[in-house]
């Protein structure tokens, strides 16, 4: 079973549709021509041109005849697409209406800066526990996107490696700590003593792992967590080992679905026999995180964590499914207006070469780096992906349409210049929304920054989908080759 299915409209399609919003002006649509394609080495300009042209052709195909699209004729359009962007922004900011009533952008930005800092830096602690040799430490590494031999990985072994609670920071998000906790399979195990020893109140939720059958110790620990109001998830690990063994024993009648069903049923029966109702059990392979229930576990953790910590968890999770990519894009998109407001209202200075636009370029560099890190588009992530798949790095670079370089001041200026072309119309629309009037007082700066961030997020989201598809194709090819050997 794979986690790489996406229900409904694809995230890439949604991202492309969003690009159309930035090219609607006075009720008309214009498809960028080949002559307008940016030349030279400007990756940001080429990425914006590429996505804009593809999105506009798709939109034109839905509203014009094939002949008109072929000729690139400007076609009348309703302003609904543009208005939807304004409505979306107004809805996002509605919760902070009182803040915007301050009446000027610096006052708004000063209040929102603290909110943005809190969202990006809120502390999240996850406790990982279970029996000796169950894969606790390997899970600590996997959830942080690391292998067992990587730098700063948790020590692994067939004997208990963890004596005291050991913290491991996320390599990209230092506000997130995964704790490798001592094992619970001692004959004299007592949940109350154990939870006091590991300082139970420190953690936001727990992961309880076994590589075999769940026992009374696992259930006793779960009851103790329930009494303290702590969330937890059961994991049955090393499912790949069970699959291999079953395939060897019954090569002709082997059924992966049947084996998974048997394992799941055994887990439920044993836990329910210990008094746990409807236990959440996820079947995993720590070495094949894209298979089985890992993506379901990610989604359950996101839904279960406190709302103000949800963004921090979402952006840090491994990119192993289209569903988690969709959650990442949605969460990052909700914060665009926050980033744009702070960037335009605090430490702003004129952007060289972009008329009438002033903002904090370093705030925008930080935001774009955040997109790349979360979607696994930064250099370290791409190199690691190439190593994991045994494929050359250029194969993944070729799948990326966005910039293939680190985020620099020059790149951000380039992207702002591209986004500024339609910013004046957006600014006028802002004036028609009372709550957002303060944003229009900074001229076209906010509109330009907002559009640039949104386009950049669209590009990053599509690239992340392309990487997942490339990874999936590579994995399927490798499995096919191994099967045929």
TrEMBL record:
<comment type="similarity">
    <text>Belongs to the TRAFAC class dynamin-like GTPase superfamily. IRG family.</text>
</comment>
<dbReference type="GO" id="GO:0005525">
    <property type="term" value="F:GTP binding"/>
</dbReference>
<keyword id="KW-0378">Hydrolase</keyword>
<dbReference type="InterPro" id="IPR030385">
    <property type="entry name" value="G_IRG_dom"/>
</dbReference>
<dbReference type="GO" id="GO:0003924">
    <property type="term" value="F:GTPase activity"/>
</dbReference>
<dbReference type="InterPro" id="IPR027417">
    <property type="entry name" value="P-loop_NTPase"/>
</dbReference>
<keyword id="KW-0342">GTP-binding</keyword>
<feature type="domain" description="IRG-type G">
    <location>
        <begin position="122"/>
        <end position="304"/>
    </location>
</feature>
<keyword id="KW-0547">Nucleotide-binding</keyword>
<protein>
    <recommendedName>
        <fullName>IRG-type G domain-containing protein</fullName>
    </recommendedName>
</protein>
<dbReference type="InterPro" id="IPR007743">
    <property type="entry name" value="Immunity-related_GTPase-like"/>
</dbReference>
<dbReference type="GO" id="GO:0016020">
    <property type="term" value="C:membrane"/>
</dbReference>
<dbReference type="InterPro" id="IPR051515">
    <property type="entry name" value="IRG"/>
</dbReference>
<dbReference type="Pfam" id="PF05049">
    <property type="entry name" value="IIGP"/>
</dbReference>
């Amino acid at each position: 079973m794979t986690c790489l299915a996406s229900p409904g409209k694809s995230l890439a399609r949604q991202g492309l549709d969003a690009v159309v919003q930035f090219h609607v002006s006075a009720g008309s649509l214009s498809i960028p021509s080949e002559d307008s394609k940016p030349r030279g080495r400007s990756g940001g300009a080429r990425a914006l041109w590429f996505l804009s042209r593809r999105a506009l052709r798709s939109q034109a195909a839905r509203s014009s005849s094939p002949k008109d699209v072929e000729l690139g004729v400007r076609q009348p359009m309703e302003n609904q697409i543009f208005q939807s962007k304004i409505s979306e922004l107004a809805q996002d900011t509605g919760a902070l209406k009182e803040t915007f009533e301050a009446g000027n952008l610096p006052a708004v930005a000063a209040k929102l800066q603290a909110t943005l800092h809190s969202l990006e830096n809120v502390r999240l602690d996850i406790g990982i526990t279970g029996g000796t040799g169950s894969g606790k430490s390997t899970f600590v590494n996997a959830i942080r996107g690391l292998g067992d031999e990587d730098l700063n990985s948790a020590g692994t072994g067939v004997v208990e490696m963890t004596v005291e609670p050991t913290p491991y920071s996320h390599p990209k998000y230092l506000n997130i700590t995964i704790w490798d906790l001592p094992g619970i399979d001692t004959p004299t195990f007592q949940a109350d003593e154990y939870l006091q020893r590991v300082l139970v109140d420190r953690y936001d939720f727990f992961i309880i792992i076994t590589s075999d059958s769940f026992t009374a110790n696992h259930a006793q620990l779960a009851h103790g967590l329930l009494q303290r109001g702590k969330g937890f998830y059961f994991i049955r690990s090393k499912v790949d080992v069970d699959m291999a063994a079953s395939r060897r024993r019954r090569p002709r009648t082997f059924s992966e679905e049947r084996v998974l069903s048997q394992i799941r049923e055994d887990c439920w029966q044993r836990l329910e026999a210990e008094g746990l109702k409807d236990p959440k059990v996820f079947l995993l392979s720590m070495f094949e995180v894209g298979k089985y229930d890992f993506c379901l576990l990610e989604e359950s953790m996101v839904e279960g964590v406190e709302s103000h910590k949800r963004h921090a968890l979402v952006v840090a999770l491994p990119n192993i499914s289209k569903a988690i990519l969709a959650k990442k894009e949605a969460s990052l998109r909700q914060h665009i207006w926050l980033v744009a407001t702070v960037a335009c209202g605090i430490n702003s200075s004129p952007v060289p070469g972009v008329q009438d636009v002033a903002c904090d370029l370093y705030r925008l560099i930080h935001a774009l780096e955040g997109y790349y890190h979360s979607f696994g588009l930064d250099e370290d992530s791409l190199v690691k992906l190439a190593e994991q798949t045994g494929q050359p790095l250029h194969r993944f670079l070729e799948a990326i349409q966005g910039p293939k370089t680190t985020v620099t001041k020059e790149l951000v200026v380039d992207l702002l210049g591209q986004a500024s072309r339609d910013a004046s119309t957006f600014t006028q629309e802002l004036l028609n929304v009372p709550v957002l009037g303060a944003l229009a007082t900074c001229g076209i700066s906010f509109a330009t920054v907002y559009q640039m961030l949104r386009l950049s997020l669209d590009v990053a989201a599509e690239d992340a989908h392309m990487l997942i598809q490339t990874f999936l194709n590579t994995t399927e090819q490798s499995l096919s080759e191994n099967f045929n050997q």
